[in-house]
Amino acid sequence: MTKASDVFTLKNANNIEVTFIGRGGQVIGIKVPDAKGQIADVVIGYENVDAALAGDGYFGALCGRYANRIVEGKFELDGTKYQLDINNEPNHLHGGNDGFNNRVWDVKPYADSKYAQAYKLSIVSPDGDQKYPGELTVSVIYGLTDDNEFVIDYTAETTKPTIINLTSHAYFNLKGAGTGTIENHVLELNADKYTPISAELGTVTGEIAEVKGTAMDFVDAKKIGEACKSDDPQVKLVDGIDHNFVINSYDGRLKLAARLTDSESGREMEVFTDQPGVQIYTGSHFDGTETGKLGTPIVKWAGVALETQIFPDSPNKDHFPNAVLRPGETYKHTCVYKFS
């Protein structure tokens, strides 16, 4: 039986290590060499497991049943109306008050020749859990390849029609956690469009807008700080970026969504997914009151999350990608973080 504090580590032939714990499948460390072979931990978080269990439960965790926001926690499915927890006023976020990030997942070694090492994480969410319909059975593979790919492979099945959107919530700093902000990181996105947010709703309006001419334009790679310090009204709303980007030419196949580069260390991370969107969040709410890795405060823009997923509030927006899962169907989602 897996415990919340149980620690698991994936290693490959190139000195890359991914460490996670039983609670939330929370990734508490990813060690990656820089251009000179120097190793650093590139996910922000805490110095030890006890601190991780006491701290921000979203750091590096699996989020669900519905990652991101649902407006006022309301949705209707097949004529039945549902009211979910409001835990991010005025909305529902990441499964509510007791999301998958708070649950202890069952973790077992997983054998597959494409991985240097892998684990399978499983959970059963009963009918009515988090106020969602249907018993949901979820499996997540964490696999590390010798091509330096950290693969997160999700599958889920349900006993009743339900909604689903799973993601991983790691914040990356390619210089190394605790060594400053990601303002000088260069971000490139395979996204000509994004979904603007409103202050009133606290999330997406339903509009799908062009990034061209806005701070959200990362089609041509640019420094994250350039966007975060701009006067763009969307940036001002969240003091940075907390937006869903629409991946170009979505067809359900794995494709490049993002490329993050730190010129100082020479580290680069590419993000591939078969999902229609990627939420970019620059950690604007970090205020330095918590101590993170290397004993340094976790400050605003200390890391950036790149969360592959279906769009926020998709169940209430007919023109957004489908987030409904029905009995007999299988939810599938693959996300790959590739380091170089």
From TrEMBL:
* Subunit composition and interactions: Monomer.
- Binding site residues for beta-D-galactose: 68-69, 169-171, 242
Enzyme Commission number(s) of this protein: 5.1.3.3
Name of the protein? Aldose 1-epimerase
The processes (GO biological process) annotated in the record are:
galactose catabolic process via UDP-galactose, Leloir pathway; glucose metabolic process
Checking NCBIfam families in the record gives:
PRK11055.1
Kindly identify the residues recorded as the active site: 169, 307
Cofactors needed by this protein, per the record, are: Ca(2+)
Listed GO CC annotations: cytoplasm
Reaction catalysed by this chain? alpha-D-glucose = beta-D-glucose
Q: What class of enzyme is it?
A: isomerase
In the UniProt record, does the keyword Membrane occur?
no
Query: What keywords were assigned to this record?
Result: Calcium, Carbohydrate metabolism, Isomerase
The record's InterPro entries line, in alphabetical order, gives: Aldose_1-epimerase, Aldose_1/G6P_1-epimerase, Gal_mutarotase_sf_dom, Galactose_mutarotase-like, GH-type_carb-bd
